[in-house]
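HOLO CASE FILE
Compound: 2'-deoxycytidine-5'-monophosphate
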Amino acid sequence: MIPSVIALDGPASSGKSTVGALVAGRLNYLFFDSGVMYRAVTLAALLRRIPIADEAAVSALAESVQIDVLPPLFNDGRQCTVLLDKEDVTWAIRAPEVDAAVSQVSAYARVRQVLTGQMRAIARRGRILMAGRDIGTVVLPDAELKIYLDASAEERAQRRYAEQAGRGGKESYDDILAAIRKRDAFDSGREHAPLVVAADAATVDTTGLSVSQVVSRLLALIKDRETA
Ligand code: DC
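Model generated. Tokens follow.
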């Protein structure tokens, strides 16, 4: 049997979502991108004009909103459908305003506790590939397979630049690189569940590799862990 619960961690734009969705599709597993949950709470705070710096108010909000992550439902390039209190926010959570505030929201201990509990409940159903920053270290420390995807900051900025330009975005490469470096430093330096490589994770450096090459490496790792 191949591992039923797979943890996939790595920094911003390391390819977790693209590669994770493809690998999950090949295995017929649920692809669950945990970042969407932090993004949904951030969007809710912005929409309700709750100051992002108000930790108590943002934490209370995380406890009260209902976030659902469903299969795609529409064929518009989405890897899943994200509902915030039953409203489709799949694309709204990708806005630059959310990008700019989500690291701060995800650094709040109570927000992490609430969302981590919801993620564990979903993972208990099995046949899942869960992507994030702390899945192998904190959310699912018992995951049967842990993979850490990495790539240089420049390569990740190039990928994000191409992706947003394709959607008509106007951010420059330099601005994107600066934002990625800032987010890396914040995500790695925060007090609660910082981005670290789990001791028992297999690291895959994707710099210079195509999407299909990374998918093949991951499928090979998964096959390696196959048990009778
Ligand atoms: O992967 P992403 O860019 O959608 O993640 C958004 C933010 O959420 C990012 O700043 C890191 C944070 N995050 C986290 O702290 N833990 C996770 N398991 C997933 C995302």
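CASE NOTES: DSSP finds nine helices and eight strands in the chain. The chain has a mean pLDDT of 92.
CLOSED: yes
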